[in-house]
C-alpha cells in the first residue's frame, strides 16, 4: 500500500520534525513551499504559495503524478505582521496576505485533500492536520497577534466544521497546537519539531475522528482542553 504525505509549508523546525517522523513510518513525504526546498527526509519538493490558491491546486496535481494521491496532508505555514502603530495600523495588503493562511489557502488545500483522499488506497488513514496555536481559545487582547489570530480563528472554525462533515468517509481533520505545561502558549523558540512529529503521528494513527482540537506538550503527549489566558 502506497502511503503519501504532503506537508504544506515545510520549514526547518516543525516541517522537518514531521517529515522525519513520517519517513520513519514508511511514508513518501513531499514538501511544498514557495522555494520548493527539499528538506531532510523528504522524497520530493513542489512549489506553492498558500496566498495563491491556483499554486496549491497545481502542487496537489504534481504530488499525485510523482508519488500518488496524498492520504495525509499537513498544513503548516502561517503569516504574521506586527502592527506598526495601533491595532488598526496593519497595511491592508499585509492583513489580506496573512489571513489567507487560515481562509482561502486552507480552504483550497482542504478541497484538494478531500479529492485526494477519495483516490488514495481505501485501507490508508486519511488525515488533514493544521498546525495551530491557542489564539482561537483565548480573549483577543493583544494587538500584535491581529493577523495571526484572525487566520487561526478562521482555520479553527473550518477544521471543526470539516471534522464534523466528513465522518461518514472517515476523513479526519485536526487543529493541533503545542502548549506549555500550564496549558498556555509557547514561544517560537520553544516550538519542538520532534513534538509535532510525535503528536501528528498519534493523530494519523487514530481510527476515528475524536476531538478536533488537539493540544500537546513538548514531548508530543496530549494535553488538556482547559481555558487559558495570555
Automatic annotation (TrEMBL):
Pfam families xref list: adh_short
Keyword Oxidoreductase: yes
Top-level taxon of the source organism: Eukaryota
Keyword Coiled coil in annotation: no
Keywords: Oxidoreductase
MF term (GO), any: oxidoreductase activity
Family in the record: Belongs to the short-chain dehydrogenases/reductases (SDR) family.
Official protein name in the record: NAD(P)-binding protein
Species this chain originates from: Exidia glandulosa HHB12029
